[in-house]
């Protein structure tokens, strides 16, 4: 996953080292402690550790999933009471969703795996998902057909198909989105101005997605067919290194973390990242775990692939500027090369192909792509806003974000 690129910020002052009295340092681990997990990712790729709660919903959820799932339990009270506009970035709601979704991935440490399909938890999660989608619809521009659909079908329903030629509208919409300029530009900041501490923080944030990279989008494979399925598999096969473990993008990122002396254990940094970071992965899980959102999942992946090469080239330059190793830079370099090829496949064979075979999903494709752009935008705003104030973008040791 990458941040959609946009123009450089025009701040003439150089980046200052992070100064935050009383804040915990970035959780580095000794270099000597890292190579074992890089050589044997299974040792560092187990269930995610349980975090501290961030509000009433995540607190009640964490209490519930520590119990025996076979016992009678009522989770219908686990409703989030915030405003819809706050749902995409609320720490409490995003953590609850991330924990519920993680049961479908590596699992949660000490949590009975039967919770994955517990009907009460699924019932509660569906309400949180509806609230998240309602917030996204407020934040993400929609086509007129989509707006009419959402008002008649409810916040949790996919969009209706677009009027006119759906294939042309998907191609034009995705192309315009990939070429759009806006502020701020996280990739240029990391390339030119970021300190080592700030670049390391960026990697800590991204670890929540990149250590499971490709997995959330792979939910689409059994939901597609024919040439569209083939396009998806072509992209995903590269993400998984063509079956070579050391070439998998998640493993390349693990080596990158090791080069920066950052703990490579799956889910290790969950406590340190805010809801705006969890949103990025939660979006893909939301779209991937529901067949009705397959169009949005395809659009989300297409947006990623079409906006990846240039930012990753800049990340690579920032990595090297700050003394990062050449072998570790392979993670960024691989995305520059692979995603330049994936861009055309994602646009014409995957996204346009789906709009051609299932025209009613064209609106969903654009909605998913716009959600990806929105998530990248609020993530960049958070990091650059905190850094401009001389603060850490990570949550402090007490779990409080100012």
UniProtKB/TrEMBL annotation:
Q: Which SMART domains match?
A: Haem_oxygenase_2 (SM01236)
Q: Give me the stretches of Low complexity compositional bias.
A: 144-161
- Cited Gene3D superfamilies: Heme oxygenase-like (1.20.910.10)
> Where are the annotated segments for Disordered?
144-164
Q: Name one Pfam family in it.
A: Haem_oxygenas_2
Q: What is this protein called?
A: Iron-containing redox enzyme family protein
Query: What organism is this sequence from?
Result: Microlunatus spumicola
